[in-house]
Amino acid sequence: MKNENCMIEAKLYTVKYDADTVSHLVPDEESCKKCISKACQTVCPANVYEWNDTENRLIVNFENCLECGACKIACEKHTLGWQYPKGTKGVTFKQG
Hints:
The protein is of the alpha+beta class. The chain has helices at 2-12, 29-34, 39-43, 70-74, and strands at 16-18, 25-27, 49-52, 57-60, 80-82, 90-92. The strands form three sheets. The protein has a two-stranded antiparallel sheet with strand order 1-6. Strands 2-5 form a two-stranded antiparallel ribbon.
């Protein structure tokens, strides 16, 4: 698994981002506190989600989002507000 993670991380460096100043990912904080699986952390290939035990909250690094939507599907509480970034913001995949 370690070798596979290195391959994914290497590919993530090839993706171009133009991050917005406002997150397009808005989890319901109270639902996140009650969530058992924290599946968003597991399914996200770009490690956008990170649970902080000290602060008892989900940290969302939306700037890294690949816009695949896996987190929205995996959310056991179905309370993750997810939309595409506005305008020309977000991820750009290499053409060709």
